[in-house]
Amino acid sequence: MTTGQDIVLVCALARILRGRRHVAVGSNSPIPGSAALLAQALSDGGMRVEILGSRKYSTFSGLADLFDCACTGRLDTFFLGPGQIDGQANINMVGIGPYPRLQVRWPGSHGSPLLYMMIPNIILFRTDHQRRSLVPKVDFISAPGVSPPNVYRPGGPSALVTSMAHFSFNRARARFRLESVHPGNTAESVIENTGFEFDSSPSVAVTPKPDPEMLAIISERVRFQIAELYPHFAVSLLNDLEYYKLPA
Amino acid sequence: MNVEILPVDIDSLVEHVGNGDLVALPSAVSAEYSGVSMVATRAIIRKHVKGMHLVAVPSTSLQADLLIGAGCVASLLTGSILLYEYGKANRFTAAQEAGSIVVKDSTCPAIHAALIAGEKGLPFMPVSGLIGSDILRYRMADDGWQTIDNPFGEDDPVVVVPPLRPDVTLFHVPLADRFGNVWIGRRAEFATMAKASAKTLVTFEAFFDGNLMADEDKAPATIPALYVTAVSHQPKGAWPLHGGDAYEEDAANLREYAEQSKTGAGFAEYLTRYVLDIDEAA
After folding, report:
1. Relative to the CA of A229, which of A10, B3, B13, B193 has its CA 20 to 30 Å away?
2. Cβ(B90)–Cβ(B58) under 8 Å?
3. A231 touches chain B (CB under 8 A)
C-alpha cells in the first residue's frame, strides 16, 4: 500500500536544494539521492551532484574528495540522517545509553564531526518523526549544532526534514523553526511527536505537493538513475507515481 | 631493481600477522572494487590470532564483524561499522554491549589524517572540525588527541591527532606483477596505509604481464614493491564481497551472514561452514 509519501519528501528536499551549486549525498540515502538528482535536472546545468558510491553520478575520484571539497569551500550541501537530533541541532550517530557500552548501537559518526562543521548547508533528514529520535538532549554528540564564536565553522545545519514536516534552523538562536507540515499533518501533531521545543508562526504552511514537472522528471529520469544504487527503492518510486496517477 | 617476488600461499601470507598487532583494514564501500582481503581474513581466523587492534580506513563491515565474532579482536578504531543494505554488524553490536572489545569511535577524516602523519613520519596532523564533538572528548582522554592554538592564527583552536603506524596493512587488489608491485586503481588511501605501516600484505586477483612501474598508465596507481611485504595470488579473494568488474558480491551469502550472525550459535554455524571447514591453503 503506497501513500505517495516518498515522492512528497523527494520533492520537498528538491525544492530546498534549488539554487545550490554542489550537492553531495552519502550512503544509504535513496530519498536524498533522488532529491539531488531531481534538483539537478531542474537546475539547467547549474548544479553538480555527488552520489557517493555511484560510478555514474559522482565526479569524485575517491572518499578523500568529499573531505577535501568540504574543507576548501567546494561543497555547499550535504545530507545527514542521525539517530538522535536535539533542539540545539546536536546530532548523535553512535547510539543510546552510557558510552561506550551502549544499549542501542548505531553504525557510528562517519565523517559528520568534520562535515557538519565545514559544509554550509547540512540538511538533516529522517524518514520518520518521533519523540525518541527528536529528543531534548542527545545521548552522544557526534557533532554539535552550534559552536563558540572563536571556532572556525563555515558549516552547519540549515534544515530538518522528517516524514511530517520541514524545519529551518536559526544558528544565532540555536533553535529550529517549523516552516511547513507535509500534507495530512498539523502543527499540533508535529508538536505532539517532537521531543524538543521549536519556534513557529501562528499559521504554519503546508508543504507543497509534487508538481507535474517534478513528477514527470522523476518518472522519466530520476527513477532510472537512482536504480543504479537502490533498485528496490526505484520500484517503490514507480508505485508512488501511480498513486499520483501519472502515466509511467 | 626488478627482483622477482614469488607470491606465497595464504597461510604463509598471514604468518606476518601476530597476536596483539595493530592492523589497518580498508573500507568495502568503493564501487570500483571492495579491496577487502576476505581470503586472508579467513586464514587469520583459522590461525587463531588473538588480541588484534583493528583500524578501519575509514569504516568497516563484514570483515571486522567476522574477526570480532571469531574472538580475534581486542579493539576497533573506526568511523562506522555496518553491513550496509544487509543491516547491522551484529557480532560487533553484541561485543560492545558485553564489553568484550574496546570500541574507539573516530571519524573518517581523523583516521586519514593520522595515517598521513604516519606515512610522512610527522609527529601529528591537524584535522578540521571536531571541536565540541564527543568523538574528540573520548579520543582526547584515551588516545592523546589535543586541541591546540593555530600557530599561524589568533584565538583559533585546531584539533591535532597523533600518527597511526600500524604493524600490518592488509588489502586485496585487482593486479600485481611478478616483481611485487601492486596496482590499486583509484584507492589512493591504500598507498597511504602501506607507507604508514611496518608490513603490507596484499592478496591479488590476477597477474599483470610485465612491470607495473614501467607502464605509464598503470604506474601512477601502483604501490611499488618497496612498501610491500608479501603478496598472494588469490582469485575471488574478496568473496563474498565484490571484486569490481571481476565479480559481484555474493548476496545470498551476505544475507545468510546477516541472519546467522544475530545469535552466537548462528554465527558459529556460519563460521564453521564458511571459514573453519574450508581449505584455501593454495
Report:
1. B193
2. no
3. no
Mean pLDDT of B16-44: 94
User: What φ, ψ does residue B110 adopt, rounded to 5°?
Assistant: -70, -35
DSSP state of B81: B
pLDDT of residue A143: 98
Q: Smallest Cβ distance to A108: which of B98, B105, B128?
A: B105
Nearest CA in chain A to B89: A107
> Does the beta carbon of A243 lie under 8 angstroms from any beta carbon of chain B?
no
Query: Which of chain A's residues have a Cβ under 8 Å away from the Cβ of B108?
Result: 63, 67, 110-111, 114
Q: Between A and B, how many CB-CB pairs are < 8 A?
A: 133
Residue A245: the pLDDT is 64
Torsion of CA A89, A92, A93, A96, to 10 degrees: -150
List all residues 6 or more positions away from B193 whose beta carbon is below 8 Å from its beta carbon.
B24, B26, B57, B115, B166, B169, B171, B200
Q: Helix B251-260 crosses helix B62-69 at what angle (to 10 degrees)?
A: 40
> Mean of the pLDDT values across residues A202-213?
94
**Each residue's pLDDT tens digit, B227-277:** 999 999 999 999 999 998 899 999 999 999 999 999 999 999 999 999 999
With an 8 Å Cβ cutoff, is A103 touching chain B?
Answer: yes
Ramachandran assignment for A213, one of left (phi > 0), alpha (psi -120 to 50 degrees), beta (any other): alpha
Q: Under a CB-based contact definition with an 8 Å cutoff, are residues A190 and A129 in contact?
A: yes
Phi, psi (rounded to 5 degrees) for A53: 95, -15
Contacts of B99 in chain A (CB under 8 A): 101
Instruction: ipTM value, please give it.
Output: 0.94
Mutate which of A51, A52, A60, A67 to test chain B, going by most B C-beta atoms within 10 A? A67
Whole-prediction pTM = 0.95
Cα B39 versus chain centre, distance? 13
Q: In chain B, positions 94-123, which contact chain A (CB-CB < 8 Å)?
A: 96-99, 102-103, 105-110, 112
% of residues, chain B, pLDDT over 70: 99
At residue A247, the pLDDT reads 44
What does the alpha-carbon distance between residue A183 and residue A200 come to, in Å, rounded to a whole number?
Answer: 17
- Side-chain half-sphere CA neighbours of B198 within 13 A: 10
Give φ, ψ of B26 to 5 degrees.
-85, 160
Give the mean pLDDT of A54-77: 91
Residue A16 one-letter amino acid: I
Q: With 90 as the cut, is the pLDDT of residue A187 above it?
A: yes
Upstream peptide bond of B240 is cis (omega within 30 degrees of 0): yes
